Amino acid sequence: MRSPLLNKLSLTCGRRLPVSWLVLCFTSVLVLIAVFGSSFPKSFDYVTVTPVPEIYSNYRRLKEQAAVDYFQLRTVSSGAGRQGELGLCGKERENYVPCYNVTANVLLGFKDGEEFDRHCEVSSQGKFCLVRPPKDYKIPLRWPAGRDVIWTGNVKITKDQFLSSGSITKRLMLLEENQIAFHSQDGLIFDGVKDYSRQIAEMMGLGSDSEFFQAGVRTVLDIGCGFGSFGAHLVSLKLMALCVAAYEATGSQVQIALERGLPAMIGDFISRQLPYPSLSFDMVHCAQCGIVWDKKEGMFLVEFDRLLKPGGFFVITSPISKPPGHATSLKKRSMLTPLAQFTEKICWSLIAQQDETFIWQKTADAHCYSSLKKNEVPLSKEGYDAPYYQTLMPCIIGASSKRWIPIQNKSSSPDLSSVELEVHGVSPEDFFEDLQVWKLTLKNYWSLLTPLIFSDHPKRPGDEDPLPPFNMVRNVMDMNAHYGGLNAAFLEEMKSVWVMNVVPVRARNTLPLILDRGFPGVYHDWCEPFPTYP
């Protein structure tokens, strides 16, 4: 009996053909497949199959998968032509931050402050090496103890720099033999920051700073944050406060804020925009941040306007006051005059002034921009949704964005409504599925973060071993954050972790969604170094 294949061939080529013709027909088909298959492009090489995430609950399988991932990463990181292991950098690179080389920038003609800016395009291509920790480095104290006490050996600040500093925040710190304490025993430091926060709340018409949420304030961009004491207090109020300060070779605000376990990154806008989308923050705070407001025709304020959401607040605290007629008082008045004049041109209103603190509010009325004079501050047309160190623009964004929603009307939950998700082009099903996947993944991650694997005699955790403490880890960088699902999973599991959600510039632009959830996030090109300290 002939096989079914021969029966089909006989039906195709004719029932009365001899067997030799059937064999010839079959051979011809194979030849045609080979010829045409070689002439077509390799389509399958370009088909991307999205793997379904497989969550391993079994420790052994998880360990095996982790080993496979490790060797794959090691192969990629070693490079095709690189031989051997990477060596350690010299001691001079303990606090090295790529893309910030003031000397090289000056030689290339950068000036007017731009020599202190980020210039990855002029960074020297030195040898690759691993940055070593400082000689006296110690593992930071766990949160929340590490918020108030850090080891001096972990940061680049000397005793002389500390004592000679004129910053209020620095003078409030207590320097001990090998520690810097930000929270004195008598509570004076804490009370000073708390009083300042309460003052801002009262100037906004609130009963106390615990009502910031009710005013729509969840995310705060703290420009020139000192060493994070104000941000630390806001974090205690369940707000997201992101510290952004310029690069400093020593005594860095960002380095110390990170050491305290607070969200922070290097950034300034001397000539280029910060790497955040428009309408990102509910409040911008600037205490003694040293900005000269009448430079560059108000473009610094235009950048703040771009970052603020409708109805958001701009809080500025000027230098310590002096008696009337004193040079400092006159300097303060001359500094604030252009600020007050320009805010009227961009639909901001001064809502309160007390002592040295001023609060402006960005308009929540979209019609305000249509009444602006055309010859003053122009409205932009496009290009504000994905800024990655673009040149500062002299125009404001107006109210054309779909995300133009006053902060007082936005949900206070990180779980966005279906209407809010529609604004971002995300379906509720995808959003929910992303969270569920990350909740399961986090449970597997956390089961491995046991102190046993960091001890002198590491071993595989068993069922009888205690679970890792909630404060085992303080900060996590999600290099491809997507919807911020990992961040949301940490919150649901009540872990004392903040996540730096990074959205690659070549990936889908989901950073506006992440920031609208109240999470910290930033654009970044992973072909360049991340703007932070080792």
TrEMBL record:
Location in the cell reads: Endomembrane system; Membrane
Primary residence:
membrane
**EC number(s) recorded for this UniProt protein:** 2.1.1.-
CDD domains, per the entry:
AdoMet_MTases (cd02440)
Record keywords = Glycoprotein, Membrane, Methyltransferase, Signal-anchor, Transferase, Transmembrane, Transmembrane helix
Instruction: Provide one Gene Ontology cellular component.
Output: endomembrane system
Single GO MF descriptor:
methyltransferase activity
Instruction: Tell me the superkingdom of the source.
Output: Eukaryota
Under the heading InterPro entries, the entry gives: Put_SAM_MeTrfase (IPR004159), SAM-dependent_MTases_sf (IPR029063)
Pfam families the record matches: Methyltransf_29 (PF03141)
Q: What class of enzyme is it?
A: transferase
Q: Name one GO biological process term.
A: methylation
Residues that span the membrane, as ranges: 21-40
Q: How does it sit in the membrane?
A: Single-pass membrane protein; Single-pass type II membrane protein
- State the family named in the UniProt similarity comment for this chain: Belongs to the methyltransferase superfamily.
- In Swiss-Prot or TrEMBL terms, this protein is called Methyltransferase
